[in-house]
Write a structure and sequence with these properties.
mainly alpha
Length: 326
Protein backbone atom coordinates (compact mmCIF):
# COMPACT_ATOMS: atom_id res chain seq x y z
CA UNK A 1 0.00 0.00 0.00
CA UNK A 2 2.78 2.43 0.89
CA UNK A 3 4.75 1.67 -2.29
CA UNK A 4 1.71 2.15 -4.52
CA UNK A 5 -0.27 4.95 -2.87
CA UNK A 6 1.98 6.40 -0.16
CA UNK A 7 1.05 7.17 3.43
CA UNK A 8 -2.52 8.17 2.57
CA UNK A 9 -3.22 4.85 0.87
CA UNK A 10 -1.70 2.97 3.80
CA UNK A 11 -3.93 4.78 6.29
CA UNK A 12 -7.07 4.16 4.22
CA UNK A 13 -6.30 0.47 3.75
CA UNK A 14 -5.51 0.08 7.45
CA UNK A 15 -8.84 1.67 8.37
CA UNK A 16 -10.66 -0.74 6.05
CA UNK A 17 -8.85 -3.74 7.54
CA UNK A 18 -9.57 -2.70 11.12
CA UNK A 19 -13.19 -1.92 10.28
CA UNK A 20 -13.41 -5.43 8.82
CA UNK A 21 -12.11 -6.93 12.05
CA UNK A 22 -14.48 -4.86 14.19
CA UNK A 23 -17.42 -5.94 12.00
CA UNK A 24 -16.37 -9.56 12.45
CA UNK A 25 -16.57 -9.08 16.23
CA UNK A 26 -20.16 -7.89 15.80
CA UNK A 27 -20.96 -10.94 13.66
CA UNK A 28 -19.56 -13.28 16.29
CA UNK A 29 -21.82 -11.68 18.90
CA UNK A 30 -24.86 -12.25 16.65
CA UNK A 31 -23.83 -15.88 16.10
CA UNK A 32 -23.41 -16.46 19.82
CA UNK A 33 -26.73 -14.83 20.64
CA UNK A 34 -28.67 -16.75 17.98
CA UNK A 35 -27.28 -20.16 18.92
CA UNK A 36 -27.65 -19.63 22.65
CA UNK A 37 -31.24 -18.57 22.04
CA UNK A 38 -31.97 -21.89 20.32
CA UNK A 39 -30.65 -23.70 23.40
CA UNK A 40 -32.30 -21.40 25.95
CA UNK A 41 -35.32 -19.82 24.19
CA UNK A 42 -36.70 -18.41 27.44
CA UNK A 43 -33.90 -15.79 27.34
CA UNK A 44 -33.88 -13.18 24.55
CA UNK A 45 -31.08 -12.98 21.96
CA UNK A 46 -30.07 -9.55 23.25
CA UNK A 47 -29.66 -10.80 26.82
CA UNK A 48 -27.63 -13.75 25.58
CA UNK A 49 -25.24 -11.36 23.79
CA UNK A 50 -24.90 -9.22 26.92
CA UNK A 51 -24.18 -12.24 29.11
CA UNK A 52 -21.62 -13.67 26.71
CA UNK A 53 -19.85 -10.31 26.53
CA UNK A 54 -18.90 -10.68 30.19
CA UNK A 55 -17.53 -14.17 29.49
CA UNK A 56 -15.52 -12.85 26.54
CA UNK A 57 -13.99 -10.05 28.59
CA UNK A 58 -11.72 -12.40 30.56
CA UNK A 59 -9.87 -14.28 27.77
CA UNK A 60 -9.80 -11.22 25.52
CA UNK A 61 -8.19 -9.09 28.22
CA UNK A 62 -5.80 -11.74 29.56
CA UNK A 63 -4.46 -13.41 26.41
CA UNK A 64 -1.74 -11.08 25.16
CA UNK A 65 0.53 -13.12 22.90
CA UNK A 66 -0.19 -14.56 19.45
CA UNK A 67 1.28 -17.90 20.52
CA UNK A 68 -1.38 -18.37 23.20
CA UNK A 69 -4.04 -17.27 20.76
CA UNK A 70 -2.87 -19.86 18.23
CA UNK A 71 -3.95 -22.64 20.61
CA UNK A 72 -7.36 -21.01 20.90
CA UNK A 73 -7.50 -20.87 17.11
CA UNK A 74 -6.79 -24.61 16.93
CA UNK A 75 -9.79 -25.26 19.18
CA UNK A 76 -12.00 -23.20 16.87
CA UNK A 77 -10.66 -24.99 13.79
CA UNK A 78 -11.42 -28.42 15.24
CA UNK A 79 -14.90 -27.28 16.25
CA UNK A 80 -15.57 -25.90 12.76
CA UNK A 81 -14.47 -29.18 11.14
CA UNK A 82 -16.87 -31.09 13.40
CA UNK A 83 -19.73 -28.77 12.43
CA UNK A 84 -19.05 -29.26 8.70
CA UNK A 85 -19.06 -33.05 9.14
CA UNK A 86 -22.28 -32.85 11.19
CA UNK A 87 -24.10 -30.75 8.57
CA UNK A 88 -22.99 -33.01 5.71
CA UNK A 89 -23.88 -36.11 7.72
CA UNK A 90 -27.34 -34.74 8.50
CA UNK A 91 -27.98 -34.12 4.79
CA UNK A 92 -26.97 -37.68 3.92
CA UNK A 93 -29.03 -39.20 6.74
CA UNK A 94 -32.17 -37.05 6.55
CA UNK A 95 -32.25 -35.97 2.91
CA UNK A 96 -34.57 -33.23 1.65
CA UNK A 97 -36.79 -32.12 4.55
CA UNK A 98 -37.89 -28.76 3.08
CA UNK A 99 -41.49 -30.00 2.66
CA UNK A 100 -41.62 -31.04 6.31
CA UNK A 101 -40.23 -27.67 7.46
CA UNK A 102 -42.55 -25.78 5.11
CA UNK A 103 -45.61 -27.61 6.45
CA UNK A 104 -44.60 -26.79 10.02
CA UNK A 105 -44.05 -23.10 9.19
CA UNK A 106 -47.13 -22.78 6.97
CA UNK A 107 -45.31 -22.24 3.67
CA UNK A 108 -47.07 -23.33 0.47
CA UNK A 109 -44.42 -24.72 -1.89
CA UNK A 110 -47.00 -25.28 -4.64
CA UNK A 111 -46.82 -21.53 -5.31
CA UNK A 112 -43.08 -21.00 -4.73
CA UNK A 113 -40.80 -24.04 -5.01
CA UNK A 114 -38.49 -24.83 -2.11
CA UNK A 115 -35.44 -25.15 -4.38
CA UNK A 116 -34.47 -22.80 -7.19
CA UNK A 117 -31.45 -23.18 -9.44
CA UNK A 118 -31.23 -19.42 -10.03
CA UNK A 119 -32.60 -16.31 -8.33
CA UNK A 120 -31.22 -12.98 -9.57
CA UNK A 121 -32.49 -10.99 -6.58
CA UNK A 122 -30.21 -12.96 -4.28
CA UNK A 123 -26.99 -12.25 -6.18
CA UNK A 124 -25.92 -9.07 -4.30
CA UNK A 125 -26.24 -10.76 -0.91
CA UNK A 126 -24.54 -13.88 -2.29
CA UNK A 127 -21.56 -11.86 -3.51
CA UNK A 128 -21.18 -10.33 -0.05
CA UNK A 129 -21.49 -13.66 1.75
CA UNK A 130 -18.94 -15.32 -0.53
CA UNK A 131 -16.53 -12.43 -0.10
CA UNK A 132 -16.97 -12.49 3.70
CA UNK A 133 -15.92 -16.14 3.73
CA UNK A 134 -12.41 -15.03 2.77
CA UNK A 135 -12.24 -11.95 5.00
CA UNK A 136 -10.09 -11.32 8.07
CA UNK A 137 -6.85 -10.38 6.30
CA UNK A 138 -5.63 -8.19 9.16
CA UNK A 139 -5.30 -11.23 11.40
CA UNK A 140 -2.77 -12.92 9.09
CA UNK A 141 0.34 -11.17 10.55
CA UNK A 142 -0.63 -12.43 14.02
CA UNK A 143 -0.86 -15.97 12.66
CA UNK A 144 2.49 -15.61 10.90
CA UNK A 145 4.30 -14.45 14.05
CA UNK A 146 2.82 -17.30 16.08
CA UNK A 147 4.01 -20.02 13.68
CA UNK A 148 6.79 -22.34 14.83
CA UNK A 149 7.93 -22.62 11.19
CA UNK A 150 7.27 -19.28 9.43
CA UNK A 151 8.91 -20.65 6.28
CA UNK A 152 5.82 -22.82 5.79
CA UNK A 153 3.53 -19.79 5.78
CA UNK A 154 2.70 -19.79 2.06
CA UNK A 155 2.02 -23.52 2.06
CA UNK A 156 -0.24 -23.07 5.09
CA UNK A 157 -2.19 -20.27 3.39
CA UNK A 158 -2.71 -22.34 0.24
CA UNK A 159 -4.03 -25.38 2.08
CA UNK A 160 -6.12 -23.21 4.38
CA UNK A 161 -7.96 -21.53 1.50
CA UNK A 162 -8.53 -24.91 -0.15
CA UNK A 163 -10.00 -26.28 3.10
CA UNK A 164 -12.17 -23.18 3.65
CA UNK A 165 -13.51 -23.28 0.08
CA UNK A 166 -14.31 -26.98 0.31
CA UNK A 167 -15.99 -26.60 3.73
CA UNK A 168 -18.14 -23.68 2.57
CA UNK A 169 -19.23 -25.55 -0.56
CA UNK A 170 -20.17 -28.62 1.47
CA UNK A 171 -22.21 -26.62 4.00
CA UNK A 172 -23.88 -24.47 1.31
CA UNK A 173 -24.91 -27.40 -0.89
CA UNK A 174 -26.03 -29.74 1.88
CA UNK A 175 -27.81 -26.97 3.81
CA UNK A 176 -29.78 -25.81 0.79
CA UNK A 177 -30.50 -29.41 -0.20
CA UNK A 178 -32.04 -30.13 3.20
CA UNK A 179 -34.01 -26.92 3.81
CA UNK A 180 -34.30 -25.07 0.50
CA UNK A 181 -35.63 -21.53 0.88
CA UNK A 182 -36.66 -22.23 4.49
CA UNK A 183 -33.05 -22.33 5.67
CA UNK A 184 -32.08 -19.79 8.34
CA UNK A 185 -29.14 -17.39 8.07
CA UNK A 186 -27.11 -20.07 9.86
CA UNK A 187 -27.84 -23.64 8.83
CA UNK A 188 -27.03 -25.01 12.29
CA UNK A 189 -30.01 -23.07 13.68
CA UNK A 190 -32.26 -24.75 11.10
CA UNK A 191 -30.86 -28.13 12.13
CA UNK A 192 -31.51 -27.41 15.80
CA UNK A 193 -35.10 -26.35 15.09
CA UNK A 194 -35.86 -29.33 12.86
CA UNK A 195 -34.44 -31.93 15.25
CA UNK A 196 -36.37 -30.83 18.31
CA UNK A 197 -35.27 -30.08 21.84
CA UNK A 198 -34.25 -33.61 22.83
CA UNK A 199 -31.68 -34.32 20.12
CA UNK A 200 -28.35 -34.54 21.93
CA UNK A 201 -26.25 -34.60 18.74
CA UNK A 202 -27.71 -31.35 17.44
CA UNK A 203 -27.26 -29.72 20.82
CA UNK A 204 -23.60 -30.75 20.67
CA UNK A 205 -23.29 -29.19 17.19
CA UNK A 206 -24.85 -25.98 18.49
CA UNK A 207 -22.37 -25.87 21.36
CA UNK A 208 -19.56 -26.43 18.84
CA UNK A 209 -20.76 -23.37 16.90
CA UNK A 210 -20.75 -21.38 20.13
CA UNK A 211 -17.22 -22.58 20.89
CA UNK A 212 -16.10 -21.64 17.36
CA UNK A 213 -17.49 -18.11 17.58
CA UNK A 214 -16.11 -17.68 21.10
CA UNK A 215 -12.57 -18.66 20.06
CA UNK A 216 -12.68 -16.58 16.87
CA UNK A 217 -13.82 -13.51 18.78
CA UNK A 218 -10.72 -13.53 20.99
CA UNK A 219 -8.43 -14.30 18.05
CA UNK A 220 -9.91 -11.49 15.93
CA UNK A 221 -9.87 -8.94 18.74
CA UNK A 222 -6.11 -9.37 19.27
CA UNK A 223 -4.76 -7.61 16.11
CA UNK A 224 -7.49 -4.98 16.32
CA UNK A 225 -6.55 -4.09 19.89
CA UNK A 226 -2.86 -4.23 18.96
CA UNK A 227 -3.40 -1.55 16.33
CA UNK A 228 -4.91 0.83 18.89
CA UNK A 229 -2.19 -0.02 21.39
CA UNK A 230 0.50 0.99 18.90
CA UNK A 231 -1.19 4.40 18.56
CA UNK A 232 -1.22 5.14 22.30
CA UNK A 233 2.06 3.40 23.23
CA UNK A 234 4.34 6.46 22.64
CA UNK A 235 2.45 8.56 25.20
CA UNK A 236 2.39 5.96 28.01
CA UNK A 237 5.08 6.14 30.72
CA UNK A 238 5.71 2.41 31.43
CA UNK A 239 4.70 -1.19 30.76
CA UNK A 240 2.22 -1.30 33.64
CA UNK A 241 0.30 1.61 32.16
CA UNK A 242 0.43 -0.14 28.78
CA UNK A 243 -1.10 -3.31 30.24
CA UNK A 244 -3.89 -1.30 31.87
CA UNK A 245 -4.67 0.63 28.70
CA UNK A 246 -4.53 -2.59 26.66
CA UNK A 247 -7.22 -4.15 28.84
CA UNK A 248 -9.36 -1.00 28.59
CA UNK A 249 -9.07 -1.00 24.78
CA UNK A 250 -10.19 -4.62 24.57
CA UNK A 251 -13.12 -4.02 26.91
CA UNK A 252 -14.17 -1.02 24.81
CA UNK A 253 -14.01 -3.16 21.67
CA UNK A 254 -16.27 -5.72 23.34
CA UNK A 255 -18.74 -3.03 24.39
CA UNK A 256 -18.72 -1.36 20.97
CA UNK A 257 -19.20 -4.57 18.99
CA UNK A 258 -21.96 -5.63 21.41
CA UNK A 259 -23.81 -2.36 20.81
CA UNK A 260 -23.63 -2.78 17.03
CA UNK A 261 -24.76 -6.43 17.25
CA UNK A 262 -27.79 -5.42 19.32
CA UNK A 263 -28.65 -2.62 16.88
CA UNK A 264 -28.18 -4.81 13.74
CA UNK A 265 -28.93 -8.40 14.88
CA UNK A 266 -28.94 -9.86 11.34
CA UNK A 267 -26.19 -12.37 10.59
CA UNK A 268 -26.65 -12.33 6.79
CA UNK A 269 -26.79 -8.52 6.54
CA UNK A 270 -23.68 -8.00 8.64
CA UNK A 271 -21.76 -10.66 6.69
CA UNK A 272 -22.85 -9.17 3.37
CA UNK A 273 -21.87 -5.65 4.39
CA UNK A 274 -18.42 -6.79 5.51
CA UNK A 275 -17.93 -8.83 2.36
CA UNK A 276 -19.17 -6.18 -0.05
CA UNK A 277 -17.43 -3.18 1.51
CA UNK A 278 -14.27 -4.48 3.18
CA UNK A 279 -13.33 -7.73 1.46
CA UNK A 280 -14.08 -6.41 -2.04
CA UNK A 281 -11.81 -3.43 -1.41
CA UNK A 282 -8.99 -5.46 0.18
CA UNK A 283 -9.12 -8.55 -2.05
CA UNK A 284 -10.36 -7.29 -5.43
CA UNK A 285 -10.16 -3.53 -5.93
CA UNK A 286 -6.97 -2.60 -4.07
CA UNK A 287 -4.63 -5.36 -5.41
CA UNK A 288 -5.61 -4.58 -9.01
CA UNK A 289 -5.25 -0.82 -8.48
CA UNK A 290 -1.86 -1.25 -6.78
CA UNK A 291 -0.67 -3.52 -9.61
CA UNK A 292 -1.62 -0.90 -12.17
CA UNK A 293 -0.06 1.91 -10.16
CA UNK A 294 3.28 0.18 -9.64
CA UNK A 295 3.75 -1.72 -12.91
CA UNK A 296 1.26 -0.10 -15.32
CA UNK A 297 3.76 1.19 -17.94
CA UNK A 298 5.44 -2.22 -18.21
CA UNK A 299 2.31 -4.41 -18.32
CA UNK A 300 0.93 -5.92 -21.53
CA UNK A 301 -2.50 -4.74 -22.65
CA UNK A 302 -4.32 -7.88 -21.53
CA UNK A 303 -3.04 -7.52 -17.96
CA UNK A 304 -4.11 -3.88 -17.84
CA UNK A 305 -7.57 -4.81 -19.09
CA UNK A 306 -7.78 -7.60 -16.51
CA UNK A 307 -6.84 -5.21 -13.68
CA UNK A 308 -9.40 -2.65 -14.84
CA UNK A 309 -12.01 -5.42 -15.05
CA UNK A 310 -11.31 -6.35 -11.42
CA UNK A 311 -11.54 -2.70 -10.34
CA UNK A 312 -14.82 -1.97 -12.15
CA UNK A 313 -16.49 -5.30 -11.28
CA UNK A 314 -15.46 -5.00 -7.62
CA UNK A 315 -16.70 -1.40 -7.43
CA UNK A 316 -19.96 -2.31 -9.17
CA UNK A 317 -20.65 -5.24 -6.82
CA UNK A 318 -19.79 -3.11 -3.79
CA UNK A 319 -22.18 -0.29 -4.73
CA UNK A 320 -25.06 -2.37 -6.08
CA UNK A 321 -24.76 -5.03 -3.39
CA UNK A 322 -24.68 -2.53 -0.53
CA UNK A 323 -27.79 -0.80 -1.86
CA UNK A 324 -29.62 -4.13 -2.19
CA UNK A 325 -28.73 -5.34 1.31
CA UNK A 326 -30.08 -2.23 3.05
Amino acid sequence: AREAFGTGGTVILSCVLYFELFSCLCIFFVTLGDHLHTLFPMISVTKHMIYISFCLAVPTALLRTPRLLSYLSAVGTCATACVVVAVAGSAIYRGDISAEVGAREGIDFSVTPAHKLWETSGLPVAFGLIAYTFSGHAIIPSIYTSMAKPQDYEKMIKYTFIAVTFSCLVVAVTGYYMFGSTVDDQVTISLEKSCGEDNIIMKAVTWLMILTAFSKFTLTAFPLALGFEEIVAPILPNDRAMEFVSSIIKLLLIAGSLAVAIFVPSFSKLCSFVGLICTMIVSVIFPAAAHLKMFGPHLPLWQKLLDWAFIFSGTFMTIVGTQSVQ
